[in-house]
Amino acid sequence: MRYATTPAKRWGTRIGHFLILAAFVAFTAFPFYWMLITTFKSTLDLVNTKNNPFLFNAPPTLENLQVLFFQTQYLQWVWNTLLVGVIVVAITLLLAVPAGYSLARLSGRWGRQLAIGIFLTYLIPPTILFIPFSRIVGELGLQDSLWSLVLVYPSFTVPFCTWLMMGFFKAVPHDIEEAAMMDGLSRFGAFLKVVVPLSSAGILTVVIFTLTLVMQEFIYALTFITSSSQYTVSVGVPTFLVRGDVYFWGSLMGACLIVSVPIAILYNFFVDRFVAGFTVGAIK
């Protein structure tokens, strides 16, 4: 037996949904609002504890951005980060996609054990690998070079992304590949023209995950790079905008805002595919 829903109940449900959604949007957008308003606040406005921290108590200023762009090498750090990120993404895709496909098609007990072993390597804390990586970087003469980061970062990204792509390729039916090969394609051709397009969500997930890791990694970038012109954003910003007990809060927030907004936009445009890349296989 079904009961009719009264208009008051329907409106109450809609208002409840709206309030929940509004609270969630406010919670997620607040860090960006805080960074934005802090970027354009004057120093006196920031340090005066009597002022309302959520509003402009003095006219907005560009002083913090001037410090960021003209008294630091911020643009160079952004370029270094993007350069390392693009190269590491390319290396990760070249290694993880074929490896994930091979493991997905490798049946039997050995295939499962090998896949689990590759994923477990991702769980090894980076601090344990710090000493051997330092020796390798030193032997290769890559100290104070961005190539040291290009060498090290794939060791973090490839294992997890291989495991991720393996799960995605397993969701692609074998019949599709077999039909493509019956039409004259080789296995490699079927992989490129059929399997890879169907796995675009997983590939996009690999790209976003790798770029995010490169942008936020701090320990290895701080240790292997000593010249300020070679810094990445994660190292250069706190190094030059935190001087003793003096924090350049406006410039710090401006640096974080400029870097985080493009990533947030990227997540927003591809959120459906990104979620699908992490949840593939969870529901059949």
UniProtKB/TrEMBL annotation:
Which Pfam families does the record cross-reference, listed alphabetically?
BPD_transp_1
Keywords of the record, alphabetical order, are: Cell membrane, Membrane, Transmembrane, Transmembrane helix, Transport
**Where found in the cell?**
Cell membrane
Tell me the membrane topology, using the record's own terms.
Multi-pass membrane protein
Looking at the keywords, is Nucleotide-binding present?
no
Gene Ontology cellular component list:
plasma membrane
Checking SUPFAM superfamilies in the record gives: MetI-like
What InterPro entries does its record include? BP-dep_ABC_trans_perm (IPR050901), MetI-like (IPR000515), MetI-like_sf (IPR035906)
What PROSITE patterns does its record include?
ABC_TM1
Q: Where is the ABC transmembrane type-1 domain?
A: 78-270
Gene Ontology biological process terms in this record: transmembrane transport
Q: Which residues are listed as membrane-spanning?
A: 18-37, 77-102, 114-134, 146-169, 190-212, 218-241, 248-270
Protein family membership: Belongs to the binding-protein-dependent transport system permease family.
Q: What is this protein called?
A: Carbohydrate ABC transporter membrane protein 2 (CUT1 family)
The top of its lineage is: Bacteria, Pseudomonadati, Pseudomonadota, Betaproteobacteria, Burkholderiales
